[in-house]
Amino acid sequence: MDPLLYLGVLVILFLLWIKVKGLDYVIIHQRWIFVCLFLLPLSVIFDVYYYVRAWIIFKMCSAPKLHDQRVRDIQRQVREWQKEGGKTRMCTGRPGWLTVSLRVGKYKKTHKNIMINMMDILEVDTKRQVVRVEPLANMGQVTALLNSIGWTLPVLPELDDLTVGGLVMGTGIESSSHIYGLFQHICVAYELVLADGSLVRCTEKENSELFYSVPWSCGTLGFLVAAEIRIIPSRKWVKLRYKAVHGLDAICKTFAEEAANKDNQFVEGLQYSLTEAVIMTGTMTDNAEPDKINRIGHYYKPWFFKHVEKFLKEDSGAVEYIPLRHYYHRHTRSIFWELQDIIPFGNNLLFRYLFGWMVPPKISLLKLTQGETIRRLYEQHHVVQDMLVPMKHIKTAITRFHQDIHVYPLWLCPFILPNQPGMVHPKGDEDELYVDIGAYGEPKVKHFEAQASTRQLEKFVRDVHGFQMLYADVYMERQEFWEMFDGTLYHKLRKELGCKEAFPEVYDKICKAARH
């Protein structure tokens, strides 16, 4: 039989099966079929389009001129909103399913949508060591360009699809954050269109209160139209050391010591049970031992967290040399370890060689096609949370995660939190070392109940003066939210800049009631 005819017959049979069983049934019980046949090819098309578009625009140097036009268009839309009487608050017109956050904001349907089509890298200034980018430029674009010319971001959050705007208005972290802090701490300037339609630039010295208030504000002080971010020289390789650690006390002690050691340019932990973890430390280098090179980013390679798990049995530790860009996006192909719940055989050798080049599916497409039934199932039987707690409380925090949700692996990422104004800062007067504990997966505790269990974790985090990443489900009440975050400067700016009538308060954008 002709291969195309055979394929056509299979497609017809598949569509008939869907018709008989119903689309909801297939998406819920056999979601991998839908993902493999439709979402993976669509994801490849999306990636190719955006990569080619970004390359052409940067090479033609047309981005700065187009940028100015786009800014004026945003100002025009805001002033039109004013002329119409400002009857509803404003938000960006980007569809909610395109974001990397778990849920879609309900406010998109009731607020004035301001269209912001800004996804380009505007300028790389190697003398000032700064890159100027638009808010919808993503980490995949940035690494592809910067690494090709010998530069990189000091903090480069993991997933390709994370945008600069999301990382500025929300937050971002990476295994270099124990040196440089969160993504906001490598930003040197923001450009925003405010509620009155004016364009303003803010830095540590110019409009400093606005500069410190923008991070974590989720677009409730103005529309970000550009950001200037520090860059540093890159190297070809990351020399990565793997160390298996057994026992919770030893895990916490080793992790804290490695995070405090500034000779380590990268520090990360993957905890596979309450008493088993692999702690990884890395440094950039231009030289590699040929027999220890591992190009983990190739599509046929094992998922990184599965690769790391093998080192639990090697007490002597191990060393590998990984290409820099492969290291930066080491968890991208498996979306950390979330993809194993969507495509259970995704790490199988045969699947990787045949279809691994299409992985991962776009998170935005997964959201768009999940349906109400899957959304409810995920909400009740799936956890995606990042809790930021002081390093001195790491043992208690891991124990609470184990007792309340029991999800493994846990992602451990250290970061330094500077004593600066804004919504997030240490309790004392000095910089403090924190750890991001990331839990992604199906809870294994019998008594898990999404709202009650998450609220228990949220209370613990508040009690130790920690913070919850706002992309995830937030069950806190308004008063509890502002106990966790310092709203002093934020509320002052909201009043001064006329934001109360123009934008919703940050809590009203991220609370569970505002998302579905």
Describe the fold and architecture:
The chain is of the alpha+beta class and 516 residues long. An 8-stranded antiparallel β-sheet has the order 13-10-12-11-15-16-14-17. It has a 5-stranded antiparallel β-sheet with strand order 3-4-8-6-7. The protein has 20 helices and 17 strands.
Q: Note the total helix count.
A: 20
Distance between the termini: 47 Å
Main beta sheet, described? Answer: 8 strands, antiparallel
Strand content: 15-25%
Rg for CA atoms: 23 Å
Strands in their spatial order, largest beta sheet: 13-10-12-11-15-16-14-17
Shape: globular
What's the rounded overall pLDDT mean? Answer: 90
Structural class: alpha+beta
Number of strands: 17
Which residues form runs of ≥5 with pLDDT under 50?
none
* Helix percentage range: 25-40%
Secondary structure blueprint with pairings:
Blueprint: H1 3-21, H2 23-29, H3 31-59, H4 63-83, E1 90-92, E2 112-114, E3 121-125, E4 130-133, H5 139-148, E5 151-152, H6 164-169, H7 177-180, E6 187-193, E7 199-202, H8 208-213, E8 223-230, E9 232-233, E10 237-246, H9 248-260, E11 266-273, E12 276-285, H10 304-309, E13 318-323, H11 324-328, H12 339-342, H13 349-355, H14 363-368, H15 371-381, E14 383-390, H16 394-404, E15 410-417, E16 432-441, H17 450-463, E17 467-468, H18 478-484, H19 488-496, H20 506-510
Parallel strand pairs: 1-2
Antiparallel strand pairs: 3-4, 4-8, 5-9, 6-7, 6-8, 10-12, 10-13, 11-12, 11-15, 14-16, 14-17, 15-16
Helix pairs in contact: 2-3, 16-17
